[in-house]
Each structure stands twice: as structure tokens, then as C-alpha cells.
Amino acid sequence: MKIVEIRPWLTATSYAAREYLFVEVVTNEGISGWGEITTYPGPVANKAVAGILGNLTELLKGDDPARIEAVWNKVFRSFTYVGTRGAVSAVTSAVDIALWDIRGKALGLPICDLLGGRVRDTIPLYTHPQEASEPRKAAADARRVVAAGYRAFKIDPFIHSLIEHHTGYLDGRISRKGEEEGVEIVAAVREAVGPDVEILIDAHAMYNVPTAIRLANRLAPYSIHWFEEPVPPESLQALRQVREQMGVRISVGERLHTRWEVLPVLAGGLTDFLMPDVTWTGGISELKKISTLAEAYYVPMSPHDAGGPVNVLAGAHVMATVPNFYRLETSQASLDFYNPMIDEPLQIRNGELVLPKRPGLGVELNRDYLKKNPSKGVGAWSNPKLLFGPGKAGRRRRS
Predict the structure, then answer these.
(1) What is the tens place of the pLDDT at every residue in 320-366?
(2) How does pLDDT run across 239-283, given as a tens digit for each residue?
(3) pLDDT value at position 170?
(4) Nearest 5°: phi and psi at 53?
(5) Which residues pair with 10 in a beta bridge?
(6) Which of 228, 1, 247, 223 is nearest to 105 (CA)?
(7) What are the backbone angles phi and psi of residue 215, rounded to the nearest 5°?
(8) CA distance 8 to 145
(9) pLDDT tens digits, residue range 152-193?
(10) Among 39, 208, 271, 378, whose CB has the most other CB atoms within 10 angstroms?
């Protein structure tokens, strides 16, 4: 079997005006594998990465897709002089996931069976209520998630005070009004769901050191399960300062790429949970290696998800084989919005994902849908009004 083409699919959906970047690795024996990247900030990043993928056929044509480790290194090291994090590790991820999908299909086995076999039959999840800018609605949305069977969910109670979403760090501050509103939201949510449900807080790496410390400690009385990405990822010293002065647990990893960036975080004791994204950090191969590293430090794994069904399933197959696993993230309590893109719905029961028993990832993407729904370059992450609705992405005010 030989690789004959690397085919990117940049696809639009009606869900929150999102777009997804899928990757198809085509072989000469009629077996194709699916990978994914789906990155931020929407059209800008996805189109840039899709352009890189479009040139990979020349690099990989004729290679044996069963030689997954060799192909991983070939792609990754081809970019060594321009840096190997971010776009490069994401491109490597997409190809790697697709090769595991091909290998599973060729052998007639699910990917988890190729990684050492399952240590669990279902994958516990955490998910997201709808973003809410006021306490009453936030509480109602949280109750709906718990009623659907979830025992953990994640919110960002401060995001409505920041017009930039995920990618807009400038000085790391938040208005006092926005801070007070966020604390009120968390208080209302905790009262609504009771003491046994785990509330995770996402800070989106948006804060400077003193702001992150202040916000986390203000939320500590509400028994939050973790405070995620308190500061941007470039400075481990900043993360160390935050960790030493916070009264809550920390989760990082969404913006860490490959084992080489994860290792100093683990060795420095700088996090309680790791949450790398399988489609950005290096794929299934790399997520498995990172999980083994984390196991040596007794740090639980909880893969990030901000993408499509390939992201969810690729992370789930690895976590099915990982002893040190907490929960897998999904973007919504119901994943029915994926259904038009795939040939078989994902199954969630009582807040846990049931892995498909079919070979490879366990689903096929719907090429007809992908062909009929190419992205037109409008993504929620580049337009706060699409994400929050009119009038909800308030102007950022500084304290």
C-alpha cells in the first residue's frame, strides 16, 4: 500500500458559523484515512494550514502508510528550520491520525486495539453549557447539562468582558465590573448544580500573573475543579508564579505542542492536569507518548477538543488505552450537529462516549457533505457577534 494524495477539506457548518479542516490521506488500494486540524482564528489559521497540507502530497507520495512513526518524523522534521510547533505539529497531527485510521481499516481493528487495548469500555466526558453573560441563564444552562447525564462541565465566566476571544491577549487585565459579573455567574452555577458536579473554569490564557491569581482565588470558595490556562504559554516562569500563589488546581496543555514542550511542565510540577489537543500536539502517536510521560508523574490526562468528530474520536481511542485519564472534552452536550458530516452518529450515554466498534476511527466522513459545504471564510472565532450573538461581546474595559 502506498500514499498517493494528501487532500485537505475546509468545510463550513451551520453550527455557530464554524468551519472544520479535515484531511484525507488517500492510498493506491482504495483505503483512505481521515485526520483533522480545525484551528483558530477560523479562516486565517485554517486556510494557512490547509495551504501547507496541499503541498504534502509531493513529500509523502509513494510512502508506506503503515510506517506511521517514519512518516511522523518525515513530516515533522521537514519544517525544522522554521520551527516545529503550532502549524507544523498540527499538520503532523492530521497526517498521523489519518495513518492510524488507515492502519485500523487495513487490519480490521479499532485504533484503540492497536495501541495496547482498552483499559475502559466507555470514555467519561466533560462538556460546555451555552455561554451565558448573566447568572440566571448560566444556572439554567448548567442544570440542563447535568440533567443530560454529565457530572462535569466547563465555563468561562469572564469571557463576556473580553471582546477578543482566545487569541486577543494584550495586557492580561479585565475590568472590575467583568470580574464581579464572572464571580456571580460561578456562584449561581454552583448553587444550581450542587456540590457533587465538577465545575471547570477556562481562562483561555488571557491573563497576566496578578490577574490570573486574583481571579482563581476569588473562585476557590465555589470548589472549582480546575482553573485552565491561567496565563499565555510562552513563559513557564509565569506559570510557576501563578501556581505558587493559587488556591486551586491548574490544567494546561491546549497550547503545548509535542512531548518536548510538555516535559518541562511535568518536570517542574507546574500543572495538576494535562489537556493537549490530539489534532494540534502531534496526533495519536504523540498523544499516546505524552500520556505515558504524564503517567510517570501521576498527572491525569484530559484531551482538549474544539473541533469536529475526528478530534473527538482520535482522542477517545487514545484515552481508552490510558490508565491516567480524567475526562475527554466535547464542545456540546449533544453531538448531533456532527451527524451531517459523518456516516454514523456518535453515541453518548449518561455523559460517556461509547467508542464505535468499526475499524480505524470508527466513522467515515460524508464526502458529499464536504463537497457541498466548502468554507467561505466566515468563522465564529474571528467575529464575536457570531459566537455570542448581537450585543453580547461587550467592549473590553481595563481596571
Answers:
(1) 999 999 999 999 999 999 999 999 999 999 999 999 999 999 999 99
(2) 999 999 999 999 999 999 999 999 999 999 999 999 999 999 999
(3) 85
(4) -60, -35
(5) 21
(6) 1
(7) -65, -45
(8) 34
(9) 999 999 998 876 666 778 899 999 999 999 999 999 999 999
(10) 271
* Alpha-carbon distance values, 368 to 11, 25, 166, 321, 341 (Å): 11, 17, 32, 33, 9
Rounded distance between C-alpha atoms, residue 4 and residue 61, angstroms: 5
Q: Tell whether 50 is covered by a domain.
A: yes
The candidate with the shortest Cα–Cα distance to 71, out of 280, 284, 290, is 284
In whole angstroms, give the CA distance from residue 300 to residue 307.
22
Pairing between β-strand 3-12 and β-strand 352-354 as defined by DSSP bridges = unpaired
Name the burial class of residue 81, with classes exposed (0-12), middle (13-18) and buried (19+) by CB atoms within 10 angstroms of its CB. exposed
User: Of all residues in the chain, what percent carry a pLDDT higher than 70?
Assistant: 91
> Both 85 and 139 in a single domain?
no
What letters, b where the CB count within 10 A reaches 16 and e where it falls short, cover 320-356? bbbebbbbbbbbebebebbeebbeeebebeebbbebb
Are 300 and 201 part of one and the same domain? yes
- What's the structural domain count of the chain? 2
Q: Structural domain of residue 301, as residue ranges?
A: 113-361+379-388
User: How large is the average pLDDT for residues 133-149?
Assistant: 96
Domain with 253 in it: what CATH number? Answer: 3.20.20.120
Sign of CA dihedral 6, 100, 294, 304: positive
Residue with cell 496578578: 210
Q: Which of 166, 204, 304, 317 is catalytic?
A: 304
Active site residue 304: yes
For 13-43, write each residue's pLDDT tens digit: 876 567 899 999 999 999 999 999 988 766 7
Asked if residue 59 lies in contact with residue 75, where contact means CB atoms within 8 angstroms, the answer is: yes
pTM of the model: 0.93
- Taken in order 97, 98, 103, 104, the sign of the CA dihedral is positive
